[in-house]
């Protein structure tokens, strides 16, 4: 009896970073074998800090603009604080630049002890006022469970959307014009698009289908609300770390020395859920190793060589003892039995777009699709 | 140097954690399982968890929830709320609770204190006493389940509880609850020097120096709510606990 062996599809890896076509089958390569993500990285407007400080005047202009906006008010900007490297370093820099931020921590019920201790140290050592937005845990739990049942990849969209919504509403309420964001090109510009899907319409539909209660207090922004805050209230987000050299190791060293910050291992591992999601759910169910995106960003920004990145990738993604402990905790919090959870983990992934979502222009008006090539051509010029 | 216990008090309401001011104005502070996990990692001495609606609503202790919470704590846990029968106490103690806190039963069913102490030892039986000043400024025992002051004198009430078998008195000031103005030291002193069992002071703590004051006034341990769940002028929810270094320097070495 002969069996026909399916050819194992070999993934093609980028010649510069460590992403490959398993991470995003849609990625393309140029003549040098460099992937579309690296090319996108190169095309991003950004400063090169290898010689001098080319962003100095721009940065100072931004700082004085922020300061001017805060005249006569308690705060001139708002920063989200998770206790992780990026937001901690952001708070440190904001303080150093003489800004008067209101720090906002979004508590989604998954804080680690490290996270809260780091936040405590940052705000007390820098003398920054803190506000915490605590999500209604029972409602949020129901929504997270719904995402598990929907079998979609971006479970963290629930947290990410709510953080943005809560922060922008708070900024607006406190008459703060500027939100400083720890997002940055140097350590996180590269992120394969199949891994992420942030869309409130999608969240709403998944909750309607799989949730057991309506969305009530969950902070969210619909399309028009977003327009309202951005255009009428004119709350502006500034990624200030892009205007200064941002080296991950240097940043860590600084906050460890100055703020008694404690390291927690992986990127975004300050949240127990995120740790479990990135360390177990993504690799096991979705065959995604999120470290590859982060390491690829570091390669592009010159903080790591490809060889170093590949070496780091060989390290275990999760300490087995910690995995065991976290799994038990996650199941308890989400009220899953081991069997239920394992069944959900075995369910094949379902694309976000299989559920309701905000449609693109052509999805909304399919009869206009014949115009698409034309528009593409127009855009090219 | 003397080591004393420093105890976070967590209030359960509708399954979530809340913090009150003067037994009112409840602010939601999050999921109890996560909070206890964080306190556990901070290596606190002990945690007191009180389901503040159970007796009011005539509910039994939510054993499933308590079990879940207890499984996150390797430190001693005391639980209070809705305890009316000896079987419940047995269940609680068999499911990871170290001590039970009786409040409503001290009014309705004092025999339960005695029976619990007889079966499980008085070290497992805490009687909590809420105290509120009346219009004339004298201390009276406040009955939480009814939401009003009684005519009972706290000292008599405490002495009686001890006689019945309470191994510890948890003394809470309603007037100072959530205010972070410091403990009612007069009250602490008044009760502590008259009873032979340990007294836990609660209500009003604003920092480690308050612990020292309470111990000097005669209490054996210090409890606090707001102090350990809030940070700064916006009362941002942020679980915290003083370091052993600070406690040693500011409290243990001073008493």
In short:
With 381 residues, chain A is an alpha/beta fold.
N-C termini distance of chain A: 59 Å
CA-based shape of chain A: globular
Name the overall outline of chain B.
Answer: globular
Helical proportion of chain B?
A: 25-40%
Number of strands of chain B: 14
Strand order of the largest sheet of chain A: 3-2-1-4-5
Output the strand order for the largest sheet of chain B. 1-4-5-6-7-10-11-12
Low-confidence residue ranges of chain B = none
| Strand residue percentage of chain A | 5-15%
Provide the succession of SSEs of chain A.
HHEHEHEHHEHHHEHHHHHHHH
Mean pLDDT of chain A: 93
Query: What series of H and E elements makes up the topology of chain B?
Result: EEEHEHEHEHHEEEHEHEHEHEEH
Number of helices, counting only DSSP H or I runs of 4 residues or more of chain B: 10
Low-confidence stretches of chain A: none
Using only CA atoms, what is the Rg of chain A?
A: 22 Å
Overview of this structure, please?
The complex is a heterodimer of chains A (381) and B (255). By secondary structure, chain A is an alpha/beta fold. Chain A is built from 17 helices and five strands. A five-stranded parallel beta sheet of chain A has the order 3-2-1-4-5, with helices on both faces. Chain A is globular, with a radius of gyration of 22 Å. The radius of gyration of chain B is 17 Å and the shape is globular. The longest helix of chain B is centred in the middle third of the chain and has 11 residues, at 154-164. The chains are: A alpha/beta (381), B alpha/beta (255). Chain A binds chain B through residues 105, 107, 109-113, 116-117, 119-120, 123-124, 129-132, 134, 136-138, 329, 332-333, and chain B through 15-16, 28-31, 33-34, 37-38, 41-42, 68, 71-72, 231-234, 236-240.
């Amino acid at each position: 009896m002969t069996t026909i062996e399916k050819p194992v599809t070999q993934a093609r890896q980028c010649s510069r970073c460590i992403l490959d076509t398993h991470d995003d089958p849609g990625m393309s390569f140029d003549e040098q074998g460099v992937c579309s993500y690296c090319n996108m990285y190169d095309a991003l407007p950004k400063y090169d800090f290898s010689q001098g400080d080319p962003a100095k005047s721009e940065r100072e202009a931004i700082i004085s603009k922020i300061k001017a906006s805060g005249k006569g008010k308690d705060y001139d900007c708002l920063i989200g604080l998770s206790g992780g490297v990026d937001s901690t370093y952001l708070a440190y820099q904001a303080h150093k630049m003489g800004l008067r931020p209101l720090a906002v921590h979004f508590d989604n019920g998954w804080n680690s002890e490290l996270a809260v201790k780091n936040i405590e140290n940052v705000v007390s050592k820098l003398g920054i006022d803190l506000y915490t937005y605590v999500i209604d845990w029972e409602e949020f739990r129901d929504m997270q469970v719904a995402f598990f049942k929907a079998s979609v990849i971006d479970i963290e969209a629930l947290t990410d959307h709510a953080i943005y919504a809560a922060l922008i509403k708070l900024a607006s309420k406190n008459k703060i014009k500027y939100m400083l964001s720890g997002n940055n090109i140097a350590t996180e510009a590269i992120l394969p698009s199949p891994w992420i899907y942030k869309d409130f319409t999608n969240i709403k539909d998944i909750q309607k289908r799989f949730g057991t209660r309506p969305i009530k207090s969950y902070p969210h922004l619909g399309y028009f609300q977003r327009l309202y805050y951005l255009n009428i209230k004119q709350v502006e987000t500034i990624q200030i770390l892009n205007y200064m050299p941002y080296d991950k190791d240097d940043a860590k060293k600084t906050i460890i020395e100055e703020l008694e910050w404690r390291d927690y291992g992986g990127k975004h591992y300050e949240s127990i859920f995120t740790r479990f999601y990135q360390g177990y759910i993504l690799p096991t169910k979705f065959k995604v190793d999120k470290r590859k995106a982060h390491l690829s960003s570091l390669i592009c920004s010159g903080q790591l060589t490809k060889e170093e990145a590949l070496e780091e990738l060989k390290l275990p993604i999760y300490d087995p003892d910690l995995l065991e402990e976290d799994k038990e905790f996650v199941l308890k919090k989400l009220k899953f039995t081991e069997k239920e959870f394992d069944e959900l983990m075995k369910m094949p992934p379902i694309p976000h777009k299989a559920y309701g979502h905000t449609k693109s222009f052509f999805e909304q008006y399919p009869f206009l699709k014949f115009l698409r090539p034309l528009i593409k051509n127009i855009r090219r010029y | 140097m003397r080591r004393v216990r420093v105890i976070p008090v967590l209030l359960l309401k509708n399954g979530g954690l809340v913090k009150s001011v003067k037994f009112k104005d409840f602010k939601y502070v999050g999921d109890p399982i996560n909070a206890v996990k964080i306190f556990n990692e901070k290596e606190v001495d002990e945690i007191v968890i009180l389901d503040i609606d159970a007796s009011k609503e005539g509910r039994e202790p939510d054993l499933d929830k308590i079990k879940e919470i207890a499984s996150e704590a390797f430190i001693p846990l005391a639980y209070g709320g809705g305890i009316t029968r000896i079987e419940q106490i047995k269940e609680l103690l068999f499911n990871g609770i170290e001590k039970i806190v009786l409040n409503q039963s001290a009014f309705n069913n004092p025999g339960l204190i005695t029976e619990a102490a007889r079966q499980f030892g008085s070290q497992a039986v805490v009687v909590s006493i809420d105290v509120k000043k009346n219009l004339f400024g004298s201390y009276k025992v406040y009955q939480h389940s009814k939401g009003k002051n009684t005519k009972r004198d706290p000292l008599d009430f405490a002495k009686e509880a001890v006689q019945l078998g309470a191994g510890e008195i948890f003394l809470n000031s309603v007037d100072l609850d959530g205010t972070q103005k410091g403990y009612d030291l007069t009250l602490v002193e008044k009760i502590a020097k008259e009873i032979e069992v340990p007294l836990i002071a609660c209500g009003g703590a604003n920092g480690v120096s308050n612990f020292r004051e309470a111990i000097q006034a005669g209490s054996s341990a210090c409890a606090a709510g707001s102090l350990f769940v809030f940070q700064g002028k916006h009362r941002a929810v942020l679980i915290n606990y003083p370091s052993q270094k600070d406690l040693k320097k500011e409290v243990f070495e001073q008493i």
